[in-house]
TrEMBL record:
Chain positions covered by the region annotation Disordered: 202-222
Protein name: Histidine kinase/HSP90-like ATPase domain-containing protein
Compositionally biased residues, Basic and acidic residues: 202-218
Segments forming domain Histidine kinase/HSP90-like ATPase: 147-236
Keywords assigned by UniProt, alphabetized: Kinase, Serine/threonine-protein kinase, Transferase
InterPro entries: Anti-sigma-factor_SerPK (IPR050267), HATPase_C_sf (IPR036890), HATPase_dom (IPR003594), STAS_dom_sf (IPR036513)
Cited SUPFAM superfamilies: ATPase domain of HSP90 chaperone/DNA topoisomerase II/histidine kinase (SSF55874)
Superkingdom in the source lineage: Bacteria
One of the record's GO molecular function terms: protein serine/threonine kinase activity
The UniProt record lists the keyword Kinase: yes
Lineage: Bacteria, Bacillati, Actinomycetota, Actinomycetes, Pseudonocardiales
Source organism per UniProt: Saccharothrix saharensis
CDD domains hit by this protein: HATPase_RsbW-like
Length: 269
């Protein structure tokens, strides 16, 4: 992986990420100095590793890594939280020296920490069986119709027809939003795991979505407001290879809190 450089008042600092893949996990070893100038780049580098959807991201901290202040170690907790729901990749830390273990001892909450790589690898849970499919859509209004057809077929094939209404609604809004505002050909992906269905849409625009006021008079007028209402959680982030991805997690209503069941919008064909 590339070196992560930054410039500050004291000059230029550098931090490099060295990645290897072990038993399906991305093992990342940072070397150099973590400070204000390299914090964001380290965060984005780890997010990029998680975007490849390994079984886990394991960060090895050894003598070649130094941190300007313990507060910057929060970058690892930040990454862990951001990838917890999507793409659902666990992040683990390995302190390979007594000094690193002392530094990791506090301030990171329940984040998994280990003294050796073997221990971390052994702690990675066996990947839950997941089913996925994706389709490339045109930069045209017909993408909404194509998305609905694709989602219905997938839900039928995967025997999750109880999720089809919400999945169709969410996919339509995300795809039409990408065409309308991203002005690019979106890619729609469905990912089923642990009774949860993730609907994710990638487009080429780096502009993050804004939740608009719904306007039921226009086609697709429910907007991201209804995406939020129908989803367990949703979000967006820049995609490491360009553009952005917007995703929403839907879950089986039988496992959800019945008091928080959202109001359904009118059905759409």
């Amino acid at each position: 992986m590339p070196s992560l450089d930054g410039s500050g008042a004291g000059g230029t600092t550098s931090l490099a990420l060295h990645r290897t893949d072990v038993d399906g996990a991305a093992v990342v070893r940072p070397t150099g100095r973590l400070d204000l100038t390299t914090y964001r780049a380290l965060r984005d580098g780890l997010l990029e590793c998680a975007a490849d959807e390994p079984t886990a991201v394991i960060v090895r901290l050894g003598d070649g890594f130094e941190c300007a202040t313990p507060a910057f170690l929060s970058v690892f907790a930040t990454v862990r939280l951001r990838v917890a729901d999507w793409p659902g990749v666990p992040v683990l830390l390995v302190g390979e020296s007594p000094g690193q273990r002392r530094a990791l001892a506090g301030g990171l909450g329940a984040m998994p920490r280990f003294e050796a790589l073997d221990e971390a690898l052994a702690a990675v849970e066996r990947p839950t069986e997941r089913t996925r499919d994706e389709t490339a859509l045109p930069n045209a209004l017909i993408s909404g119709l194509l998305a609905r057809t694709f989602v219905r077929a997938a839900c039928d094939r995967w025997h999750i027809t109880h999720l089809v209404h919400d999945a169709v609604t969410v996919a339509t809004e995300l795809v039409e939003n990408a065409v309308r505002h991203g002005r690019s050909a979106p890619t729609l992906r469905l990912d089923l795991r642990d009774r949860r269905l993730v609907v994710a849409v990638h487009d080429d625009s780096p502009e993050q979505p804004r939740e608009p006021k719904s306007d039921p008079r226009r086609h697709g007028g429910w907007g991201l407001t209804i995406v939020s209402s129908l989803s367990r959680t949703w979000g967006s982030r820049p995609w490491p290879r360009g553009g952005k991805i917007v995703w929403a997690v839907l879950e089986d209503r039988a496992t959800a809190n019945p008091l928080s069941s959202p109001r359904r919008p009118p059905s759409r064909s």
